[in-house]
Amino acid sequence: MVILAGFLHLVDRKKELILVSSFNVFPNEIEGGVSKLTGVLESPAIGIEDKKTGEKVKLFVVLKDHSITIETIKNHCKNYLTA
What we know:
By secondary structure, the protein is α+β, with helices and mostly antiparallel strands. It has a single domain, classed as GMP Synthetase, Chain A, domain 3, CATH 3.30.300.30. The chain is built from two helices and eight strands; from the N terminus they run ββββαββββα. The protein has helices at residues 27-35, 70-80, and strands at residues 2-4, 7-9, 18-20, 23-25, 40-42, 45-50, 54-59, 62-63. The strands form four sheets. Strands 1-2 form a two-stranded antiparallel sheet. It is globular.
């Protein structure tokens, strides 16, 4: 992590794998799938603790096109990513 001019720049991941209910989830695969949606600039994914599944995926989306809705992103993920 580097802080320049008041901006936070992430330069690497702490973990390369998210364990969701014993399934290996690779953040770069999620990010690659979401980036195929026109109007998405960036979409970093991280794993956060979850009592039920151990970890769950949290996705941060930076938009180029602000008319894109959460529902549009969810539907896109259903088409391009494994449940």
